[in-house]
Design brief:
This protein is α+β, with helices and mostly antiparallel strands. About 50% of the residues lie in helices and about 20% in strands. It is globular and about 55 Å long.
């Protein structure tokens, strides 16, 4: 939805929201530099977004001087990003459980991820290196709304860093969703994958660390 709004409106407000979604928080100065806008112009938008409940603030310590004030998204902004129809999905799984028994939702979820893995695997076969595979997977997952990027961490491991969780509400009801998703990525990469999550206010950062040692079942 946010990308569509950006195409329609070309508003600095939407650019601010998009940039904050990809960060752990930014100062007005950092936003000004990234957006090539005046300090007061960006500041005014941030203040209005904070008043509306879409942003909150926190302080980051500096080596010298006063702590910096950073803006970050709140959970209220989640409606602007893809969430995979959680209400309908949850209703369908609840109905399946009522009609076919408590084993129905896990079976459906397993089948869903299996099908998803097969579709992605067919696209990943064109890659020749692990890095190419990880970068393509990041693009595929971004197309699903995960806002995924491929990076290298301090230990030299490839990581997928994702700034949105379209399946968050589904995972809150069925905790196996996160496990199935991680196992799917592990098989697609052919390596051990470790998942970690950071969530503060509206900040979401899911990291899949890809080990370079070949994974065996």
């Amino acid at each position: 939805m946010l990308n569509l709004l950006r195409e329609m409106l070309h508003s600095p407000v939407l650019d601010i929201v998009q940039r904050l979604k990809h960060s752990t928080g930014m100062t007005v100065t950092e936003l000004c530099t990234a957006m090539k806008m005046s300090y007061m112009g960006v500041k005014q938008h941030c203040v209005e977004l904070e008043k509306a409940g879409f942003l909150d603030t926190w302080r980051r310590s500096k080596a010298a001087g006063r702590p910096e004030k950073l803006y970050r998204l709140t959970s209220k902004a989640d409606v602007l990003f893809v969430n995979c129809g959680p209400t309908l999905t949850l209703d369908l799984l609840t109905t399946a459980e009522r009609v076919y028994g408590e084993s129905a939702p896990p079976k459906l979820l397993f089948t869903y991820f299996q099908s998803k893995e097969e579709a992605m695997s067919a696209k990943l076969t064109k890659t020749t290196t692990l890095e190419e595979r990880a970068k393509l997977l990041a693009r595929l997952r971004s197309a699903e709304g995960c806002m995924s990027v491929c990076e290298t961490d301090a230990q030299g491991h490839l990581v997928l860093v994702e700034h949105h969780r379209p399946l968050r509400e589904l995972a809150a009801r069925y905790d196996m969703v996160d496990e199935l998703e991680c196992e799917m990525i592990e098989r697609l990469m052919g390596c051990e994958v470790r998942r970690s999550v950071e969530e503060v206010s509206g900040l979401v950062r899911v990291t899949f660390q890809i080990k370079t040692t070949a994974h065996t079942a």
